[in-house]
TrEMBL record:
Belongs to the glutaredoxin family. CC-type subfamily. Residues 41-113 form the Glutaredoxin domain. Its main location: cytoplasm. It is found in: Cytoplasm. InterPro entries: GlrX-like_pln_2, Glutaredoxin, Thioredoxin-like_sf. It comes from Lolium multiflorum (Italian ryegrass). Pfam families: Glutaredoxin (PF00462). One of its GO terms (cellular component) is cytoplasm. Keywords: Cytoplasm, Redox-active center. The lineage of its organism: Eukaryota, Viridiplantae, Streptophyta, Embryophyta, Tracheophyta. It comes from the Eukaryota. This is Glutaredoxin domain-containing protein.
Length: 141
């Protein structure tokens, strides 16, 4: 009887920890959503990342002044946000490639996830980036 009670109590503790982790993860996603919705264009970046630099220069060259969050300068919160962004960018089950996509840069336009450097560049090349930026209110011309 005592052993069964210990197992049940142990399961409750493990279950409680899982719930706490899920709550913390949900809080990180909510924080990302708040940050991403704070401006027409938001870039989650790392200060020493060359691909982040490319995306920021492209946006600035188009006349967009994005809000930039340098995650490597935010301590533990930056690491949590970067992990959440990596999950958002991952292809999911059956998503094709098995390579882990870099967690930065991540670009949001109009509060909606656009994607990483590949998606931003693809949109720029195929001519859909500027209309997206105009629709979000980041460009007026």
């Amino acid at each position: 009887m005592l052993r069964m009670q210990q197992q049940v109590e142990g399961a409750l503790v493990v279950g409680g920890m899982a719930e706490a982790e899920e709550h913390q993860e949900a809080a990180v996603y909510e924080r990302v959503a708040r940050m991403a919705g704070g401006n027409a264009v938001v870039v989650f970046s790392a200060s020493g990342c060359c691909m982040c630099h490319v995306v920021k220069r492209l946006l600035l060259g188009l006349g967009v002044g994005p809000t930039v969050y340098e995650l490597d300068q935010m301590g533990g919160a930056g690491r949590e946000i970067q992990a959440a962004l990596a999950q958002l960018l991952s292809p999911g089950p059956g998503g094709g490639h098995h390579q882990q996509a870099p967690a930065v840069p991540v670009v949001f336009v109009g509060g909606r996830l656009l994607g990483g450097v590949e998606k931003v560049m693809a949109c720029h090349i195929n001519g859909t980036l500027v209309p997206l930026l105009k629709e979000a209110g980041a460009l007026w011309l």
